Amino acid sequence: MKSDRITFDPKIMGGRACIRGMRVTVSLLVKLVANRMSTEEILAAYPYLEVEDVQQALQYAVQKPL
User: How far apart are CA 33 and CA 11, in angstroms?
Assistant: First the structure.
């Protein structure tokens, strides 16, 4: 799996899996999707994210425990 958008930095969100070094965690995106928020709705709520950010977050979550 290509996951060049998932980053880990102990100075950002305690080293949790984040999107491109931003303070947006993979677990947040997974929770939004679990609550039936569409990718389009997520992108509207977080305009600095991209479709591939959401896709890679979900792929990462399937392969790694949050």
Answer: 26
pTM of the model: 0.90
Domain boundaries, the chain: 6-63
Task: Give the phi and the psi of residue 6 in degrees, each rounded to 5.
Answer: -95, 120
> Is 5 in contact with 19 (CB distance < 8 Å)?
yes
Long-range contacts of 37-42 (CB under 8 A, 24+ apart): none
Q: What is the pLDDT along the chain (66 residues), one digit of tens a residue?
A: 678 999 999 999 999 999 999 999 999 999 999 999 999 999 999 999 999 999 999 999 998 765
Does domain 6-63 bear CATH number 1.10.10.10?
yes
